Amino acid sequence: MQRQSLQQFQHFSARPGFPEASDSDVASVVATFHRVKTPLLPASAAPFTSRRPATVVLGSKVEPWLTQTLKRINKIKRPLNSVLQHQRCLAETLSSPNATWTLASILLPKAPESELGKDSDPLYQMIHIEAYIFLVDMVLGNEVAYKLTPETIESLVTYHKNIHCVDARANTYDWSEKEQECKNLHEDFIQATNKFTFRTHVSALEGLEEDGAGELLECEGVKDGIMSLFKSLTPPRPDDAAIWSQASDMMARPRESLGILSFSPGIVPPPADFDNSTWNIAELDFPLAFR
After folding, report:
1. What whole-number distance in Å separates Cα of residue 265 and Cα of residue 254?
2. How far apart are CA 135 and CA 205, in angstroms?
3. 152 in a domain, yes or no?
4. If both were cysteines, with which of 3, 11, 53, 168 could 233 make a disulfide (CB 3.0 to 4.6 Å apart)?
């Protein structure tokens, strides 16, 4: 794998506009890649950045299915006789404003629980998770990377603010910093949706359409990834010092003020002139349970 990656990186670095790289330089880059756990992404993957042209990295040999796909979707025939021509054609297609992919559709409540009657049927809304391709890597990862469109991010953020946060606030008890925690919960969600990326195998490009758009079929990973962004509002753990202070205060109060009887139910207290020396314990009329 490393030998193949080395050859592919050599081919990529030898393209016009790229500096010549020695074998040791390329081997160092490949070795570094294999050590990292998180795939390297272009600057276009950074959160809160506007859409940029897709980055396409092809190997030294183009797969036949990619050539057939590009020929199928291009109304105007264009030469596809080299790796560079394939790269430019695919990059231009995926960079089109209409090149939007539908990754999944998620069914979510349309209103907070407080606005729904106990006996009324829940109302739902369908949010379509749409994204654009910002990276095609057919050298190291053989993967396609997607980023959510601004419209999808806006829909998710609106739902989170108007419904998810409202339910989270209603379903937790009050504490001094509750409102601030609700704001933090929403801000974290905004950050997470803008950072969200998803990857599939490059074979997904076989479903490429003329305008660069496409659709992922039965991709549960997208739904799971999106739903994992919705976090719960977690109340703080009670302060141990406050608990012990309350317990000590209760122990210091008279038993009668706490509603605790001096004698258990069912046991008759002795008379006021009870003399411990003249009573035989066996003669006391205790309930059967205590005999």
Report:
1. 19
2. 12
3. yes
4. 168
Domain count, the chain: 1
Contact (Cβ atoms closer than 8 angstroms) between residue 8 and residue 62: no
Query: Residue 247 has what DSSP assignment?
Result: H
Calpha distance 56→19 (Å, rounded): 18
Residues 127-139: tens digit of each pLDDT: 999 999 999 999 9
Domain membership of residue 261 (yes or no) is no
Say which residue the tokens 């739904």 belong to: 223
Cβ(169)–Cβ(67) under 8 Å? Answer: no
Q: Residues 66, 205: contact at Cβ < 8 Å?
A: yes
- Cα separation, 286 vs 263, in Å, equals 13
Q: Is 200 inside a domain boundary?
A: yes
Question: What is the pTM (predicted TM-score) of this model?
Answer: 0.69
Domain that holds residue 135: 2-29+42-227
Rg (CA), the chain: 34
Residues 6+ positions from 100 with CB-CB distance below 8 Å: 130, 131, 132, 149, 213
Helix (H, G, I), strand (E, B) or coil at 65: helix
Kindly report the backbone phi and psi dihedral angles of residue 106, in degrees, each rounded to the nearest multiple of 5, phi listed first. Answer: -120, 130
Residues 6+ apart with CB under 8 A from 287: 266, 267
pLDDT in tens, 189-233: 999 999 999 999 999 999 999 899 999 987 789 999 999 999 999
Q: Is residue 216 one of the residues assigned to a domain?
A: yes
